Structure formats: C-alpha cells, structure tokens
Amino acid sequence: MTGVSPSRYNVIIPLRRGRSLVFNSLSGATAVLEKRENIKLRRLMTGQEVRRDAVLKTLLYGGFAVEGGVDELEAIEDEYRRARFDPSTMVLTIAPTLGCNFGCDYCFQGIDKPFDRMPSEVQDEIVSLIVHNAPTLRNLSIAWYGGEPLLALPEIMRMSERFTNICEIESVQYDSLIVTNGYRLTEEVANQLHQSKVQVAQVTIDGAKAYHDKRRILLGGQGTFERIVSNITGVVNSTPLRVVIRVNIDSRNKSDVPDLLHFFHDAGLSHRSNFSVYFAPVEAITEGCHSVADQCISKSGYAELETDLQHLAFDLGLASLPYPKRFRGLCGAMRPKGFVVVPNGDVHKCWDTVSLPQMKIGTIFDLDAARTSQIAQEWAEWTPFNNASCRSCKLLPNCAGNCAHKFINPQQTLGEAGALPCPSWKYQLKERVVSLAIRQGAICESDFDDAAISTDPTEICSVPPPEDMIKSSRGVRKLLPLIVVN
Fold it and tell me: What is the distance, to the nearest Å, from the Cα of residue 126 to the centroid of all Cα atoms in its chain?
C-alpha cells in the first residue's frame, strides 16, 4: 500500500470527459484533474492501492491526497490555536460614542442610543493597556466603531495619535479601520483619518436612492443617499483612504441591489484601487433588531442571491471574485487580547453586544477581573472544534465557526441564522468554485452539466446542528489560494 489517503476536505465537481474540478479547503487549492488524476483520486477514495508516480505527487502537492498517519483535523486545530492564541497580536474595537445620527430599523443596537462620548479617563486606560502589552506585540489592530464614530472625531484623533506613537516606539505594526455610515465622511475628514493611520472606511449603502432613503434615514426621517454618495465619490477621487461599501440585504431590498451596482459603475467607481463593494445578510441577531426577523432571507436563498450579486459586482469592476478565506470565524472576540470598549469603559468581547450591558465581561478599569468573569470564560472556552457540526464540515478550515456570538448567545438570534450560524459558502460552494475557474480560464461552461455543480449542504456538512440550538433560536425573543490548474 502507498500509505496515502484522500483528503477529507475535498469538494469534487464532476466534469465531462472523465475530469473533475476539485477544491480543498485545507490547502486552499483548486485544480482541474485530468482523467488519469481523477481516476487515481477515485481509487484512493474507495480504499484501493495506487502507485506512487507523478500523478500521485500532483495530488499530494495540491493537498487532495495526504500521507498516511496525517490527522488533518488535528493539523487544522493546531493551526487555529496558534493563530487564535498568538500573544503578539492585539485587536481592539473602540466605540468613542454609541450615539448615532441615523435611525435604521434593522440596527442591532436599537434606535434609542446614548450620545455620551468617551471621557479622557477611559481613553487613558486604553492607552495604558496598549503600553503594557506593546513590548510583546508585533501587531495592533484598531477598529473605530459606534453608533456613529465620526460623531466623536476629536476622540478618534487624540487616541490615534497616542496609539501610533506607542507603536512607532515599540516597532509594532499598526493598522486601523473605521465603520461609519458615511454621512460625515467628507474629503477633509478622510484626510484627517488617513493621517491618523486609518486605512479603510466601511460605509453602508443599501440600495439605489429611492430605496436607501426609506431605510437608512437620519433620526429626523430625512434621506441620506445623495450626501453619502457625494462624500464617498470625493474621498475615492481625492484621498488615499480606501472605501469599502457594505450592502445589507433582506427581502425588502434584494431586487434593488443590482441598480445600486450599476449606479456605482456609472458614477466612475469601477476598477478603483480604493473602492470596492461586498454584501451581507440582515439578521435578527439581538433584541434590538428582532422586529425585522420576518424580513430576513433564508440561508440558501441569500447564498444564491449573493453569488449572483458577486458575479455582477465583478463584471462591473466593483469587486474581485471571492475565495473562501482562512478561519473566517477567528475575529477579535476569539483572541485573548481582543476586546471591545464602549464609552463608559465597559468591555465586551463582541461588538454585537455593545448595546447590551448585561453581556459585558467587565470594565477597562479592572481588566484582570473582566478576563476571569463568567461571560469571558464562555468566550474563552468556545471553539468550533468542540462542535460536532463544525468538526464534520468540509469548510471548517475556512469557516472556523463563522460567528461565535450565535453559538454562545443563541437566545439572541431569531430565525434560521441562529439555528445555522454558517456562511453563505456552505450553500453555494460548488457554484462559486466553478465560476472562479471559468473566469480564470481553467474550464468553460461546456465542461459540466448544471446539475453537477449544485451544492448540497449535507454533502458539505453531514451533522445537523443540535436540536436545542434550533429550538432556542426559534422560540426565544430576546493565504492567498494555491491554484493548481493542469
């Protein structure tokens, strides 16, 4: 026997003439296997003995086959733990205010937000935290959050200056982004942010003007589309700040999104190095937005819609074709040195809970106690490798649980998103891999039957979520990919 086995993380898409298109989520490789390579992989899958030759070497190189004795699940977990518990990385989300000038009905923080701004004593404690950790850090990532963080621009500027000075002295790599509604993101503000080492601004626009102005409105009910578009056009044309547009999608605006993409294209925002678009589902993930639960799209329905929109955005020069990222669920909340700090100094692990003080882990003024609180321990102990569904899933190396908040606090999320905290890739994996291969010139549409590229989620993950999780979510209201193409 060769002592070689097929990878458990292969997703195989049959092609005509005895070939196949294979994606491996562990190695990140996608390959077109010619007939002889495909036959050898099929023999491995049925436990047959195969000869060591150049064909097998190709399968091993792409990660589609592994040497005997290799425990792929153990290898993934080791890699995940090294990344998650890396002591040289700190990820802080800072909300200088929770106040917001918008009144969006689907906001998970609710409409009634406090407008207090972060006082100097809280800022000083955050600086002290960074100073204390800086000698052991290689990377410090800051996300400015809210509410609407630009309502507290002076606080952002002051803290940014202090953070960057510390990082310069200690030779720490610093990166920063801001999540803003864009209403105050003028060219002048964008230049100020960029001078403060903020590289990216995420701005939400949920459709063309007619729809956006019904949904993302000022507290007084006025529309915001023209002001936001004017701002971001000026920023993209005149500043180095990168603007990433997030489009939140539910049943109310799904048909309006293509018009928005064409609007961006016609506005001259295509093929710009500092402008791109991505999509996200509206989900009822906290009590603050439970009222929109009935408007949320099903997992499979959203995945199909997102795939079509991604293709359109790519064709219009507004986005690159997505490729499954590594450990999507490894956000700041999962890291021991990952915290969310709100204006009064309360500390959370996840920014989805910032409007729920009962879900904080503690306070910045006693971070040692916060780290050992019961809620902090729940976050520290959660891992996708203790979940039967995640362990059985072919997308585990990419997904890594996707969203720990939905597992740890299932009572907060209504509907399917709580029962199935899975990414859209699980429902459209084959279709997206095929689309990427076509656009790279590896295959063409005549190489496959449409039925062969339809994703069956049970093929990706054979173990359903626990019944108690399904019940709680329904009943409670509270690397660059390695591309190998032969």
Answer: 25
